[in-house]
Each structure stands twice: as C-alpha cells, then as structure tokens.
Automatic annotation (TrEMBL):
UniProt cross-references to InterPro entries, sorted A to Z: Peptidyl-Arg-deiminase_porph
Keywords for the protein's UniProt record, in alphabetical order: Hydrolase
UniProt cross-references to SUPFAM superfamilies, sorted A to Z: Pentein (SSF55909)
One GO term (biological process): putrescine biosynthetic process
Database matches in PANTHER family: AGMATINE DEIMINASE-RELATED (PTHR31377:SF0)
Protein name per UniProt: Agmatine deiminase family protein
Native source organism of the sequence: Algoriphagus kandeliae
Length: 405
C-alpha cells in the first residue's frame, strides 16, 4: 500500500509539472520581473550625431540594476566601450558581452521574448527594415536564428513582418498602429494580423490607432523636414503605465503652429487621444489617460544642405523627386518622452531641457519624472540626455529588450 501511495503521488506530481510546462506563453508587461535586459554596442556610421557616449551611459545605468547582455560585432569598439563603462561606474560583473558575426542594432526591434513562467522562448517576426529600406545588407532579422543556434533558445515564429517597438502591452491588451501593421503585411487582412498577435502574445484585445506622427517617419517627413525614424512604432508615443492607465503624447497649443511638422503631428496626436479615450478595457471600463506634452521640435532642428553622405543614398525614387542634392533641408531627431525603459528597480527616461531653453521645456521634463514616480513608486526614476540616440531614429526604449523571468 505504501508503494502504491508513493506511485499515486508521483503520478499527480508528474501531471502537475506537465500542466505547468504546457501553460500558454505570453509577452508580459514590461513592469513584470526581468531575468536580464538586452542592448547593443555597434558601429552606427549612418548617424549624423555621435551617440556612443549616450549608449554607454544607458548600459551603465542598466548594469547597476539588472544583468545586461550587450550584443556587439567589433572587438576594438567593444574594448573602447568597456573602458568607458568603467569610467561611468558600470557594474562590470552584471555585464555579459555577446559577439555576433554581424551588426544588430536597436535591440527592441529584432528581438522579443515570451514566457510561460518556467521557460523563455524567442518570438520571431520577419524583418523588413521598418518597411522602408532594402534589407539585403541589414541582417538584424538573423538575430533570433543566431540566438537559437548559439544560446539554445527555442524559437516561436509568427510569420508576420513586424518589430518589437511596434507593440505595447499590459496584462491583457496590445496597442499598435494599424497603418504599420498593414504596411508591413500588405498581403494579410488586419483581422488575420490581429488574430496572430493575440495568440502569440497571449492577450485578449488590441487597440488599433489609425495614424502615427511624422516625427517617427524616416527620411522626408513634410516640406523640407528630414530625419530618421522607425515608421510607426507605438513606443515613441503611447505607453501603458499599468493595466488601467495609458500615457499618451500630445503637442501643446503653444507649440502647434511653430512649424508645419508640429502642426501636422498636433492633429495626429489629437486623433490618437480621441481613440484612446474611446477604447475600453476587457471589462468594459474606460482607461485612465495621462498626457505628456512632446518636446518642442523647433528647438532641436538644424538646417543643412542635402549632400550625398547625409542619407541621400537611402532615399527612394519618390523622395528624390521632392528633394535634390544641394537643396536646403531641416534635420530633426525622433524625440518623444514616451520612449522610456522599465526594468528591475528602475525606469530610465529622456530629459531634454538645457540651459538657455524656455522654462516650458524644463516643465515638461519635470512632469514626466512626476508621472513616472507616481506610477512606478518602488523604482528609481533616472533621466538623462539621450538626444544623441534620438538623432539615429529611436530612443532609450528602442535600444533595449527585456528577457522576462
């Protein structure tokens, strides 16, 4: 009888373990505990403004709070980076350096992790260079295969063309731009895209916003404004602060008429805000919407002449019909406050005000810090000047991807 009792216990224990292993995989909200956070440190010759110091500062801050996995492909650059990280008081013991045979920048986009509470898998999307560039020479899409081969991660493929920065989640809901989803996947109906995302990310519903701002559009934006961007990433503008609260970007009435780019994006953000206010949680309740005013774009633009090295070779035929070599252009960074990173014990965000700027810009910095402190009271709020990263077309959040526990 004793042996039978033991066998029965073992049977139920085995069933329990099997059920645990078969739990659905989900993409957890960013505020859930992390095992590690991924970032990169590679050459980025296409940046108009050097950003190595800003990227190293981000790595340093991360390393003091969580195990940080740094992907790189150039030994001499990484040795330089390691010395600078020591000067920045990084926690060297929490850093893991992973060399890949190719460049893999902007870690948010080619890499996502899903978890069932026991196991972590790589969630794989097809890569299309933000739906803009020729992908023949951009190998970021190989990252999931490489991690499967080198690090033993299992991979779950979606079959969709998408990037990590295009998706924002809480425990049960996804927010994304419909224009991005359809542009990246022109051969699929939006209902099919939605079904796949809900299934693979383990969510109940999607809030689709129709239109994204031009500040995130790559190359020519409007008139003579030009710059980098991710072509519709939600994490530039709209973030969950918890399961019931959404942070939404707006442009102030004082800033809206300062140039045509601000005027355009003012209207886009108002449409987004209306859609967010009309959205409902799965239980039918409205969301609490908190707004943050965007930085005044006009304070960060600079005028220059379109020359061959400054992106002209990346313009498509339609853009080249609008602007020629020798034309005057107004170059702008992809800057917004919503592009912050949440990880264990800390939220890392951008600050933009500098001495000589209007006090209204300083007020925006302070409002963001107050919002983050209110909604993440048990985490340190660390802000720093990440504008050099913005010039490359993204921000702090774009440079990181969390690996959940």
């Amino acid at each position: 009888m004793k042996i039978i009792g033991i066998l029965i216990l073992l049977f139920f224990f085995s069933c329990s373990r099997s059920n645990e292993s078969n739990k659905n995989f989900i993409y957890p909200p960013e505020w859930e505990p992390h095992k590690a956070i991924w970032t990169d440190f590679n050459f980025e010759p296409y940046n108009a403004v050097p950003n190595e110091q800003a990227r190293l500062k981000l790595i340093s801050i991360l390393s003091r709070n969580i195990k940080t996995k740094v992907v790189y492909n150039n030994d001499s650059l990484m040795e330089f980076g390691k010395e600078k990280l020591k000067e920045l008081s990084a926690n060297i013991d929490s850093l893991e350096f992973i060399k890949l045979p190719y460049q893999s920048s902007w870690m948010r986009d080619p890499l996502m992790f899903i978890s069932n509470g026991e196991q972590v898998k790589v969630l794989d999307f097809e890569w299309s260079c933000y739906g803009v560039y020729n992908c023949d020479e951009d190998q970021r899409g190989l990252l999931s295969n490489t991690l499967q081969d080198l690090k033993g991660y299992e991979k779950d493929s979606t079959g969709l063309y998408l990037e990590g920065g295009a998706i924002e989640v809480n425990s049960n809901t996804i927010i994304a731009y419909k224009a991005l989803a359809t542009q990246r996947n022109p051969d699929r109906k939006i209902e099919e895209v939605e079904r796949i995302l809900l299934d693979k990310l383990g969510k109940e519903q999607i809030i689709w916003l129709d239109e994204f701002p031009l500040i995130d559009k790559p190359m020519i934006k409007i008139d003579q404004f030009i710059g980098q961007g991710a072509n519709g990433h939600i994490d530039v503008t709209t973030r969950f602060l918890n399961d019931t609260t959404i942070l939404a970007t707006v442009i102030s009435e004082n800033d809206r008429d300062k140039n045509s780019l601000l005027s355009h994006d003012y209207e886009v953000f108002q449409k987004n805000l209306a859609q967010l206010k009309a959205a409902r949680q799965p239980n039918g309740e409205p969301y609490n919407i908190v707004t943050i005013e965007a930085p005044d774009y006009s304070l960060y633009e600079y005028s220059t002449i379109m020359t061959e090295p400054v992106y002209y070779g990346l313009l498509d035929e339609e853009s080249r019909e609008k602007i020629s070599l020798g034309d005057s252009i107004r170059f702008v960074p992809a800057l917004e406050y919503a592009n912050f990173t949440i990880t264990n014990g800390v939220v890392i965000a951008s600050e933009y005000w500098k001495e000589g700027m209007p006090e209204s810009e300083k007020d925006k910095d302070e409002k963001l810090r107050a919002i983050l402190k209110k909604y993440f009271p048990n985490r340190d709020i660390v802000t720093y000047d990440a504008l050099p990263i913005n010039w490359g077309g993204g921000g702090i959040h774009c440079r990181t991807q969390q690996e959940p526990k």
